[in-house]
Structure prediction request, 823 residues.
Amino acid sequence: MLTWECGRNLGHLSRLRLLARRLIAQGYCVLAVVRDMPSASALLNSAGIAFMQSPRAIGVPPVSARITGYADLLLSQGWRDRSALWGMLRAWISVYEMFEPDAVVLDYAPTARLAARILNVPSILVGTGFELPPARNPLPAFPGFPWATSEAAAASERCALENVNAVLSAHRARPLASLCSLVEAESRYLTTFAELDHYGAREASEYVGPLADPLDGRRIEWPGHSAKRVFAYLRPEMTEFAAMLKGLAATDADVVAYVPGVSSESLARFETPRCVFSREPVRHAGFLEEADACLSYAPAGTVTAALLKGVPQLMAPVHLESQLTAQRVASEGMGRMLLSPRSPEQVTHALEALLSDRDTRLRARGFAERHRGSTPEAAVARIIVSIETLCRERVPSQTRARNTQPLMAALS
Amino acid sequence: MSRFLLAWELGMNLGHLARMKPIASRLRSRGHRVLIAVREVPAAAAVLGADAAALVQAPHVQGQDLAASMNGYADVLLTQGWQDVQILWGLTQAWLQLIRLYRPDVALLNHAPTARLATRVAGIPAIMIGNGFEIPPTLDLLPPFPIASASASEAAASERIALNRANAVLERLRGPAVASLSELFNEASALCVTLPELDPYGVRPTLSYGGPLLGAAAPQRLDWPAGPNRVFACLRPDTPHWEPALGALRASGASVICFAPGFTAKQLEPYARPCLTFSSRLVDLKHLAPDADLCLSYGGEGTIETFLVAGVPQVIIPSHIEAEVLATRLEDLGVAVVLRGLQSRDTIAEALERAGKDSKYRQKARELANRHRGYDPDAVADDITDRIEAIVAGQSLAHAHYSLVSAKKRA
Prediction:
């Protein structure tokens, strides 16, 4: 069973799809339980992967407090409300009991992880540094934000831990000593690199690099009007989105931009022979290596893919995770931040400055050089080996009889 | 023993859960297996309690509101993933996976049209329970909504799109095609669980009415604060004009209990006064209804019915298309004042005054209540569960109408 519970956009599904394809080819029965039905319909459909809807905290009021660490992410996903958490856990348990997986891959799926722990289902965790914090007790605060102190993060963890243990006690399951046990499991793979780990570098063996399929997306050619080329990935929730589009289009370079969630009419206003917009994802293979700069809101997937091709970054982050990504990239000298640009000219200037910045380009190329051998195929192969091992070690009939019998009663 | 899948796919808030709870617990106590698929898992955990043990998340698309400018039922479908063949296929296959894993003998669909496509593909008998809005009349072309703004030609245009998408998905999943959408909403296997008078299309001879399922226990009993007139209010942050509505309630001097979930304390604070009690937790409405003079709401059916069977007139500020359709019906019945368009504290105060003081509203509400005197929610739930079991046993639903007599007999 492959699961995705929290987070947005397409990165999680493209990771799970690569794994699912390989597992299906090797004869495994695969079920994906995922957050977003429209994107699953688009991405998993052609690959013949069966999928279901993951439980969500719909209707729970949003949390207004500032996010200090992993526990706050959980609290914002329904873990603040014990009854909601109990319901989501029950809903996950129902799926496990019906499908009876021999192993589960968890991609940013904390409640699914909790259910796997109760049911003793061997678990493989995959995710970026942000999604899989260092397994320490208490979990560390997010680095680089003045409000994210270790005390504040620990206080949030105590709150999440009290709630989760109340729910576990209602299930007659053993309590958690700390949230740390949710972010460790039989196997754990960071789908990033040390230089881009939101919490800073960890043991080298933990990193497998991204599980992104470079053949995903629509094939687009560079317009061919300029010697310099800029790839952009912008979303309407970016601050000063119109200024961003206008400044991008005014840059003296070929531009290809992926801009989802906006009508083609409103994009047409900014289109020029040098500047092409796509509302669908753009295929990276054979394309990204020709870019001289990448402008984005700093989503980990795009930033990593472009850096693997030695492309320097201009980043205008929109949320905490992308803010952390951007900080890491900037501190490694592989890109620059563009914080709240007030005019299109500011965007154009920042892009042109980056295009002529030799030092940043060299550092981005150095990153690409260091990770030249890292391919999604190799990462998938490593994870599959550990899935195979866990499935082999498990004695299905015994384990199921022991673990699911009392809970099956709920379905009776 | 049969295996039941209870599915709630569309709509918000608590009404669908309140319907499912008494049926689920009865089916279980009669030895059946029950799995409940719900739109809102947190609400389900709160309302269903122990009955939530076997629950799953219903497949859905997120973040598309029911626009007010809808002409017919197909427009509801188009906002919920039916506009796009690929998404509709994805939702249907997600329901199918659930059906394949759980292997139900019968599906009980509580406003779950995409689940209906899946039961058709899987060849599983489906029974629909819902209100008149959710079970549109079985005509070759579904009628436009019975409201002034609805256009028949636009409703038909939307239906063509929805029908086309449904058949594309059915073909792909090798299910039998439908000639019209109404084939999916066949009245013969549907049970309308409201007061027959509340059917927005008028009482239909072809549809069975099971009576409202208002039996779900509410955890919190509140007593009326001191005051001359007693007004129960049910408002949410997405209720239009909730601020002037609360302003009008505050200024009225009436004794008010207001169920207001989802608001922050700061939002409600300006309206606090001794004779106005706010609650964000479920309130025992049956305890309050007999002594209420007026009910102000956004059009939630359960609240409206609970107060109507106690003869209480209504003021409604409809917050979505289903509420608008219901409000129009209640207006026609003469039991409600409906507030549409721009409102101020004064216009809402005037409406509260009119609905409370003009005796014709109370008289009509009492007439309706008299027709349902002796309404017993437990007897209705028993009766509906009997009928569902009868359908599973292959008996027809036709002409089995909810009436006082049958409900009383059971009681």
